[in-house]
Every structure is written in C-alpha cells, then in structure tokens.
Amino acid sequence: MLSTAEDLGRLVKKERKALGLTQAELALTSGTGLRFISDLENGKPTCQIGKTLTVLKTLGIRLMTSSPDSPGVG
C-alpha cells in the first residue's frame, strides 16, 4: 500500500530499474523531463499528478483506489 510520495517514488524507481531503463530513457518515453523523473523518484510531494499518472502508465503500473464507502475502483 502506498501512503506517501516517497512510497510512490520508490515504486517508480524499482519498476524503472526492473525494465532496464535509465531516468533519461523514462523521461523521453513518458514525455516528461529528466528533472521530473528525479523529483518523482525522490518523493517530491508537489509533482504534478497528470505527469505522474503518465509515468505510471508508461511503466505499466496500474493505480487502484478505494474509498470508505465503496470497494476498490480502478
């Protein structure tokens, strides 16, 4: 379960490395910048959500959500 920006950053870094990608390669394939990838992997809490979702999709990471009133939506 992810509960912090740092948790998400660690996940992104782990998946990027598992795919054998450099930060620069991930930035290029996701249409973001190298600085953004670095900030995201380092858990910067103010990273833009739209770009973050794009990076997750590029890495094949599915984001699942849930609320107290309903089962997981994804």
What does this structure look like?
InterPro entries: Cro/C1-type_HTH, Lambda_DNA-bd_dom_sf, Tscrpt_reg_HipB-like. The chain has a single domain (5-59), classed as 434 Repressor (Amino-terminal Domain) (Orthogonal Bundle), CATH 1.10.260.40. It contains four helices and two strands. The protein has helices at residues 5-18, 23-30, 34-41, 49-59, and strands at residues 65-67, 70-73. Helix 2 packs across helix 3 (34-41) and helix 2 packs across helix 4 (49-59). It is globular and about 40 Å long. The two termini are 14 Å apart. The model has no long low-confidence stretch (mean pLDDT 93).
Which sequence of strands runs across the widest sheet?
Answer: 1-2
How many DSSP helices? Answer: 4
How much is the radius of gyration in Å? 13 Å
Class from secondary-structure proportions: mainly alpha
Q: How much helicity do the residues have?
A: 55-70%
User: Looking at the chains present, what oligomeric state does this protein adopt?
Assistant: single chain
Ends: how far apart?
Answer: 14 Å
**SSE order, as H and E?**
HHHHEE
GO molecular function: DNA binding
InterPro entries: Cro/C1-type_HTH, Lambda_DNA-bd_dom_sf, Tscrpt_reg_HipB-like
Domain HTH cro/C1-type: 12-44
Protein name: Transcriptional regulator
